[in-house]
């Protein structure tokens, strides 16, 4: 199974927001923290907002916050909403399927079961669970090193 960058970035945005619960975060800040395109993140954040995972606050002091507590955001639901499809093989897409053995193939059922199992596992976890499972506090990875410009000493 492979997640698109869109879904991957969506999960990263949500984890960043969950690690910074007491403030509004700009898309630029998230972009800098992960070293990924701000333009792409804007589209990801719009999708997260459309599906009720984040609240976008416009204006100069605006940004993004979680729309609900991390304990109420299922990783499985995020992936379902942010992935364009789960066509892991050609035959899953009825319009584009050109596989000649589809009518007789037993692999389709196995791959459908695997996809359901994948999503069922993700459904067992929330953002809060992911934060708790992290071996170190995630917010520490987002801190920028300070530069001493005063030459004290």
Describe this structure in words.
- This protein is mainly α and 153 residues long.
- The radius of gyration is 19 Å and the shape is elongated.
- Helices cover 44% and strands 5% of the residues.
- The chain has six helices and two strands.
- The chain has helices spanning 5-19, 27-34, 38-50, 75-82, 107-123, 127-133; strands at 54-57, 63-66.
- It has a two-stranded antiparallel ribbon.
- Helix 1 (5-19) packs antiparallel against helix 4 and helix 1 crosses helix 6.
Task: Give the helix/strand layout.
Blueprint: H1 5-19, H2 27-34, H3 38-50, E1 54-57, E2 63-66, H4 75-82, H5 107-123, H6 127-133
Helix pairs in contact: 1-3, 1-4, 1-6, 2-3, 4-5
Structural class: mainly alpha
Span between termini: 54 Å
Shape: elongated
Q: Which range best describes the helical content: under 10%, 10-25%, 25-40%, 40-55%, 55-70% or over 70%?
A: 40-55%
Count of individual helical segments: 6
DSSP strand content: 5-15%
H/E topology pattern = HHHEEHHH
Keywords:
153 residues; elongated; single chain; mainly alpha; disordered C terminus
Can you summarize this structure?
The chain has 153 residues and is mostly helical.
């Amino acid at each position: 199974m492979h997640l698109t960058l869109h879904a991957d970035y969506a999960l990263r945005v949500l984890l960043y927001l969950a690690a910074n619960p007491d403030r509004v975060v700009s898309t630029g800040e998230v972009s800098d923290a992960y070293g990924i395109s701000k333009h792409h993140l804007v589209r990801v954040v719009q999708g997260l907002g459309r599906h009720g995972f984040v609240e976008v606050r416009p204006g100069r002091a605006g940004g993004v916050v979680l729309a609900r507590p991390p304990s109420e955001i299922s990783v499985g639901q995020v992936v379902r909403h942010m992935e364009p499809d789960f066509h892991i093989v050609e035959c899953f897409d009825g319009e584009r399927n050109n596989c000649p053995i589809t009518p007789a193939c037993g692999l389709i059922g196995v791959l459908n079961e695997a996809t359901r199992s994948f999503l069922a596992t993700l459904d067992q976890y929330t953002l809060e669970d992911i934060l708790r499972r992290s071996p170190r506090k995630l917010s520490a990875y987002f801190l920028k090193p300070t530069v001493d410009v005063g030459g004290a000493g």
